[in-house]
Amino acid sequence: MIYIDKTNQEAIDFVTTFIDFNWLEQNDKTYKYQNIGYPQIKNPVKRFRAFFVDEQNNKCCYCCRDIVNDNSTELEHIIPKTKSILIDFEPYYQHSNVLRQNVVPQSIFELSISKLNKPPFPHHIAYHNIVASCNGKTFESSEDFTCCNRERGDEFVPPFNLMQDAIEYLPDGTIVYMRELQNRTYFEILNLSKEILINIRRLWYLFSISQLTLEQILDEKSIITLEEKINVHAIAHSPTLIEDFKLLETFSNPNIWNIFKEYSYFFDYYRN
Ligand SMILES: [Zn+2]
């Protein structure tokens, strides 16, 4: 999970202008907001999605895998689009002032008969309520599970991406919610505690304490073989050598290694 400080003024201005532009005169000469839905604002999607992929440095908001601005990347509403009344927003507000100050139910705008000040913004199109995630299908064929956006549905998960220092990754690859140390429920909802993901983070941890640079680890033409990288450089320095030896078998599979490389976010995370 990554922390995103939602301060991109260009994106805020974009949404503001979009809403203002759609304050339109009706047949009966009154004014209303029209066509301010999510399908309209994200058209063309590549332009809209860029705000989120860029500010997240091309990382999935949940699993931290590399993402790019194409159709394999999905936009996710922190407060789901299906929530419609203010009382359903309260659990999110309790965890994030960014949401409380900037995001209100879509209907408040759609039903308004007067022009409204912004912020706050309607939740279907509020920049502050949208994050970019992978499509969750990374492990669908190899490990038979999906994660991230695919799994959450409309279930409540704290708005981790807007909560600074809420999440920590431990050297063993597990995730901890710093405000409720024993609570792993949310990571299970997102399927981020699957063994393969824990092992990916564990191996990145071992690389982070190795002598190798990130470039050397990712380099396919390196004179160091894949097995040497994993075995000699990472696992051999593990204080729990026996347990970590299983990582060699998993990650010396070139397909799994390619997936592993997409999680290089954790190299810097652990090295720092
Ligand atoms: Zn993901």
List its salient traits.
binds zinc ion; mainly alpha; 272 residues
Write up this protein.
The protein is mainly α and 272 residues long. The protein has two domains: 9-134, no CATH class; 194-272, no CATH class. It has 15 helices and eight strands. It has a two-stranded antiparallel ribbon with strand order 1-2. Strands 3-6 form a two-stranded antiparallel sheet. A two-stranded parallel ribbon has the order 4-5. The two termini are 16 Å apart. The mean pLDDT is 96. The structure holds zinc ion (ZN). Residues 60, 62-63, 65, 133-134, 147-148 line the site of zinc ion. This is HNH nuclease domain-containing protein.
How is the topology of this model organized?
Layout lengths: L8 H13 L1 E3 L5 E3 L4 H4 L3 H11 L17 E5 L8 H10 L1 H6 E2 L1 H5 L10 E2 L7 E5 L14 H4 L14 E3 L5 E3 L7 H5 L5 H14 L5 H5 L7 H9 L6 H4 L1 H6 L2 H8 L3 H7 L1
Parallel strand pairs: 4-5
Antiparallel strand pairs: 1-2, 3-6, 7-8
This protein binds zinc ion.
